Amino acid sequence: MVGAPPGQRGIDRRVVSIHLVGGGWPFDDDGAVYRPFFEEVSAHAEAAGKLEGAHLAIVLVRDGDAPEKFAELVTAYEQFAKLEPVGVLSPENAPIDPAVFADVDGIVVWGGLTPAYRTSLEPCFGEIRRLVASGVPYLGFSAGAAIAAERAIVGGWKIDTVEIGSEDASEDLEQLTVAEGIGLIDLSVDVHAAQWGSVSRLIAAVEAGAVDGGVAIDEHTALIVGEGPLRVAGRGSVWKVTPDSGSVRVSTAGADAS
């Protein structure tokens, strides 16, 4: 079922070039979810006269496998653009220095344990907002999409004793947990929507008043916030949940509805 594309309400229009991907890796198509981001990254680098390639910060907050994942992502991303990758690799919950983002042409915040990404990147929230507002494209994948919000849903599968989703999608948290995010958009974001059933968590969060509204994004799907109308790329759907007279309203949009 496909409804109208998500509306402009709930998006901070002062910032542009935000690409929120609901998960799903590796990609098994022509890279439709990622190509718009890398076109913008390349354009930013070209405008800055960087002939050697775009300086792309790739943030990985992971214990153990970050170097291997970084190499995998660089190999995949080099299909889309000429790059000078900047690895921002951190153990879970270790703070990241905002200075690592100096002179970048794009920012990728990847996936893993969402609460750990939020904690590690918290010192950088202001700098990331500044860069994106200046025109540096941002791509958040899974955890990186969730924490892009002003009010970030970082995990949980219960409200009090009521189950609102799968424990497998809880991010190691029992209770629904909403915390300050980067603040690029003011709609909250959940991810792996159809695949993990996280739409129910978003619905419960809106109904309980924990967040004012939000979107849940399927895997292999991106919600793109740019200077024009919002776009959906990829093969899945974006589910929008808004309050509606004491209840909630749910609508969906796919790429062919943009």
From TrEMBL:
Gene3D superfamilies: 3.40.50.880
Keyword Transport: no
Record's keyword annotation contains Ribonucleoprotein: no
Keywords from the named record: Hydrolase, Protease, Serine protease
Pfam families with a match to the protein in the record: Peptidase_S51 (PF03575)
Family: Belongs to the peptidase S51 family.
Name of the protein in its database record: Type 1 glutamine amidotransferase-like domain-containing protein
Protein's organism: Herbiconiux daphne
